Amino acid sequence: MDASVPAGNPIRGGLLKRFSAAVRNATKRAQSHREELLPNPEQSQQRPWFKYTNSYEFMERVRVGLPPVIICVACNGGIQGKEANEAIPETADEIARSVQDAYEAGASMVHIHARDPKQLTLGARDPDTWREVLHEVRSRCPEIIINATTGAGPGMTMEERASSLAATPEVASLNLAPDMSQFKLKQRAAPLPFPRPAQEIDECIPFTYGQIHQFAAEMKRRGIKPELELYHPGCAWVVRYLIEHDLLEKPYWVQTVMGYQTSSFPTVENVLQILKELPEDSLWLCSAIGPFQLPLTTLATLMGGHVRVGLEDNIYYSRGRKARNNAELVDRAARIAKELNREVATPAQARKMLGLRERPSPYYAAGDAPAHSTVGPH
User: Fold this and answer.
1) How many whole angstroms separate alpha carbon 301 and alpha carbon 298?
2) What is the CA radius of gyration of the chain?
3) What are φ and ψ of residue 20, in 5° steps?
4) What is the DSSP string of 24-78?
5) Residues with Cβ < 8 Å from 366, sequence gap 6 or more?
6) Containing H/E element for 316?
7) Which fold has domain 71-354?
8) Do the strands 282-288 and 252-258 form a parallel or antiparallel pair, or are they unpaired?
9) pTM passes above 0.70
């Protein structure tokens, strides 16, 4: 307030009254939001999801404590291999060992692309290969949540992409938009197995409403939780479609994929816009490609979301220095979470937040499942 205005001046008095009223109204609104969030004062835990862009909810969650952060390690991807970074795991044993290190560093979920053992530069196309990989991972990581791709790799049919579902992972990715990409792959030279020349990829995977419906229906039939891949705000239409057709169960596990060739630019503004389109009861997982992985997963951590890191999305640890392994990227994500006053979720905590069953699913190599057992969640 301007000190030159006399204390008894009616202008000053009116401004003070309006200011005081505004403060009282803001306090009432904040109290109202707190009461909505905490309807039962004796409730020791809040829901792990909230409207991430709602100022009042964010402030309240920071005050009482943001939920533990789920760290998902995307261990290898279906496109690049050891020609890009020698630490990228390709065989079932390599995948399991790499995931074990990441698991011990703090990952509670792993996203896997199984490879064809007869041609490691290609994605797996049959359930038996998937079962072998999931069995190896479970053997080394008894509690980790196993998440399999249905995006797979270039040049695959929809039936081949769906082969992972027959192995009944606990979670599976579900693309919600056509996937158009153009990129160059480095030469894969000997002594690496299955050498090949440099390649240029230019393709579009035409995910349609009908195909997405089929994937989601198969996941529901097998008790697999979909991980909804949102590339841009328009994908929210498809989420609504799946909800209206009773193909999703709460909470919705939603990943914002930032910086992919046909996804939104990897900016804070674009992340916030996509979050505004999410339905109620959504748990948010953030991934970003290349150099954008670190800033945007840090953004998700401080906003109350969850993070995906790993060699599928980013082969570097810092500018000019390749990551030594997946565990190094997970360890950094865990360290950032702790510095931001967030607990790193254990697999048990992550299962509870996601609504998965408490007991981790068992997996068996082809022909090894006991007669009385059912492979997977059911």
Assistant:
1) 5
2) 23
3) -60, -40
4) HHHHHHHHHHHHHH-SSTT-----S---TT-HHHHHHHHHH-PPPBPEEEE---S
5) 128, 131, 132
6) strand 316-318
7) TIM Barrel (3.20.20)
8) parallel
9) yes
For the chain, the structural domain boundaries read 71-354
Whole-Å CA distances, 171 to 23, 58, 328: 47, 28, 24
Amino acid letter at 374?
Answer: T
pLDDT in tens, 171-216: 999 999 998 989 999 999 999 999 999 999 999 999 999 999 999 9
Cβ burial of 17 (10 Å; 0-12, 13-18, 19+) is exposed
β pairing state of 199-205 and 179-185:
antiparallel
DSSP H stretches of helix in the chain: 10-37, 55-64, 92-105, 127-140, 158-161, 209-222, 235-244, 268-276, 293-303, 326-339, 347-354
One DSSP character per residue, 204-232 reads EE---HHHHHHHHHHHHHHTPEEEEEESS
CA 55, CA 62: separation in Å to the nearest integer?
Answer: 11
* Burial class of residue 266 (count of CB atoms within 10 Å of its CB; 0-12, 13-18, 19+): buried
